[in-house]
# Entry
Amino acid sequence: MPDMERDMEENKDGVEKNVLSKSENFEPGAARYGNFINYYSFNSVSKRLGVIPSDLLLQLNLIHQPALCLDIGCNSGELTLGLYSHLTSAYQEKPDLRILGIDLDDVLIERCKESNEFANHITYKTVNVMDESCLMLLIAHLQQFNRSEFDLITCFSTTMWIHLNHGDDGFSQFLKTISGITKYLLLEPQEWKCYKAAVRRMTRLNKEVFAIKKLKIKDVVQHISTFLRTDCNMDFVSCFGETSWGRKMYLYKKVNL
# Structure
């Protein structure tokens, strides 16, 4: 579900056209939801993980019990696998971390399952986080562990696709929904320049263009911060710095944790 727009903007024309062709053949509509088939060949997993503290579970006091994580928009799973290794490698005795990776693309989820080397700790499901049934599916997953919320939800470069496809109201509702079922929320949002790049790409491919002019929320990072604090009972914790694409990761927590 993550995007490749900045990579494509910064590569030479020949490389860009090749990438677009692969994406378009794989996903009619040129990966309209960010589900690019070769995403991680352009956005290094290791560079992104380098921004996240390896002892994050210890910092959040999540090493003394099974820690439940939800990774929204897991694409083909490389980052989900890397996240598990990264968050458990700093300890002599590995914490019991369980990750559920979800994506709306069933082809990508099949790739996740085929390459899942941590099948006892990572589960993948085809789920559209914006479907009405999503919340019930996530609650059912939590109930398997006798839990009512995740310890951590991660959402890497996925917010833009939700915003472009579901508008301002859908974007805010997404934030409200996921913040309601987690203790901590780690977001890597795309800023407005990425939205414009996505529109340019769709225009070049003669595909249906996103209705970007209808969006009133343009300072995306500020909206997320304000909305989570005022409407979702969450506090800002920390910014983990910038990824190799110049995007920042923000950690929020439920109030009074």
